[in-house]
């Protein structure tokens, strides 16, 4: 059976066909959840926000215009929700160092000593690599984190990000630059902790 | 390969999407360039979130934190995903039903019938005005 395009499913959902919307949500759910997971390490929060995203999408479906891809429209919704949630939470940059579990210290030692190929393989298997990455990203301001995710993970260019956030392109570039600088500084601190094997 | 090109390739290397020649070139560059090697290690600290397409399968060792354990149990319990999905579908169905009800309240046949009756009445009155009963039989 041929796959129905997103636009056709949207039209059907607007006509009252809730199964069409379920199909649409099922199709885009993994991608939406993945975006949420880049913002939040807690899988439960990521799933809740993904769910909220589809509820918002359903209630705002009439505002969707078929000229733009449905994925982009949905991404704007989920990014806004994640950004709101990030702003609601307090950043705790002071918690970056000083509370590493044994597996986390092991991972930091690997980052210092292993070959690049070993690092790529190990990161796929280690949950702590993921947790520490979140811990580093948690030190950023919400808008800086959002810009990095849109630029690096979602592969959007500066003008696309500026359009999505309603910022100037200069602001996007400055935010991205500052975010990378801050991240590099914190990563160096974390790696130094890994070299000394600091543990609670 | 220069340092700029090498660093541009980090994301593709992390995602294992570099072709073998380019990959070998990058590895050779990092072996000979301490700055790029360092930059890659810094990159590797955030790459699991920013550049990986999937979550890691599990923790290598369980963390003895009760809160985490409860959360994991709640999320990974049998059918938890299906229940969550069903709940979302149910919500969507309720919203759809509410929207449809609202739609009916505006354009429902009841309203149309009333309008029709009103129209009929008005038409009859107009008809009576234009053609009074006394004239309608073209009485002699």
Most extensive chain interface and residues per partner = A-B, 50 and 43 residues
Name the quaternary structure.
heterodimer
Question: What is the fold-level CATH name, i.e. the topology of the largest domain in chain A?
Answer: Arc Repressor Mutant, subunit A
What Rg of chain B, in angstroms, do the CA atoms define?
37 Å
Approximately how much beta-strand content do the residues of chain B carry? Answer: under 5%
Task: Give the helices and strands of chain B as they follow along the chain.
Answer: HHHHHHHH
Helix content of chain A: over 70%
Give a count of the beta strands of chain B, DSSP E runs of length 2 or more. 0
Helix-and-strand structural type of chain B: mainly alpha
Kindly report how far apart the N and C termini of chain B lie: 112 Å
Uncertain spans of chain A:
none
> Which regions of chain B contain 5 or more consecutive residues with pLDDT less than 50?
59-79, 108-140
Treating each run of at least 4 consecutive H or I residues as one helix, how many helices of chain B?
8
Using the 3D structure, state the CATH architecture of the largest domain in chain A: Orthogonal Bundle
Distance between the termini of chain A: 57 Å
Determine Rg of chain A (CA atoms, Å): 20 Å
Structure description:
Helix content of chain A is 74%, strand content 0%. Chain A is mainly alpha-helical and 200 residues long. Chain A folds into 2 domains: 1-89, Rna Polymerase Sigma Factor, Chain: A, CATH 1.10.1740; 94-200, Winged helix-like DNA-binding domain superfamily/Winged helix DNA-binding domain (Arc Repressor Mutant, subunit A, Orthogonal Bundle), CATH 1.10.10.10. Chain B has 2 domains: 1-53, no CATH class; 83-132. Chain B has helices spanning 3-8, 10-14, 20-32, 34-50, 66-76, 80-107, 109-130, 133-136. At the A-B interface, helix 2, helix 3, helix 5, helix 6 and helix 7 of A face helix 2, helix 4, helix 5 and helix 6 of B.
């Amino acid at each position: 059976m041929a796959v129905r395009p997103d636009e056709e499913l949207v039209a059907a959902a607007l006509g009252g066909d809730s199964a069409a919307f379920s199909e649409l949500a099922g199709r885009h759910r993994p991608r939406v959840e993945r975006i949420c997971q880049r913002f939040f390490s807690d899988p439960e929060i990521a799933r809740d926000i993904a769910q909220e995203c589809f509820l918002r999408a359903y209630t705002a479906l009439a505002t969707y215009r078929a000229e733009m891809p449905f994925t982009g429209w949905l991404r704007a919704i989920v990014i806004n929700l994640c950004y709101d949630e990030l702003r609601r939470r307090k950043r705790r940059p002071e918690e970056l160092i000083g509370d590493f579990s044994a597996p986390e210290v092991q991972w930091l030692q690997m980052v210092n000593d292993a070959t690049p190929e070993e690092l790529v393989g190990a990161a796929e298997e280690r949950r702590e690599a993921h947790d520490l990455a979140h811990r580093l990203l948690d030190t950023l301001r919400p808008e800086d984190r959002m810009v990095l995710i849109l630029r690096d993970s979602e592969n959007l260019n500066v003008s696309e990000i500026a359009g999505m956030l309603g910022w100037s392109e200069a602001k996007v570039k400055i935010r991205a630059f500052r975010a990378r600088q801050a991240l590099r500084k914190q990563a160096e601190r974390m790696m130094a902790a890994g070299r000394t094997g600091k543990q609670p | 390969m220069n340092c700029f090109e090498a660093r541009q390739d980090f994301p593709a290397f992390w995602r294992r999407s570099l072709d073998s020649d380019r990959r070998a070139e990058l590895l050779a560059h990092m072996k000979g360039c301490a700055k790029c090697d360092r930059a890659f290690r810094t990159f590797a600290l955030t790459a699991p979130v920013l550049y990986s397409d999937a979550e890691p399968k599990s923790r290598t060792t369980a963390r003895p934190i009760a809160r985490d354990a409860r959360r994991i149990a709640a999320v990974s319990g049998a059918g938890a995903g299906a229940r969550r999905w069903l709940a979302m579908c149910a919500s969507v169905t309720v919203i759809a039903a509410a929207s449809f009800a609202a739609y009916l309240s505006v354009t429902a046949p009841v309203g149309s019938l009333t309008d029709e009756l009103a129209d009929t009445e008005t038409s009859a009155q107009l008809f009576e005005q234009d053609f009074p009963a006394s004239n309608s039989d073209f009485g002699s």
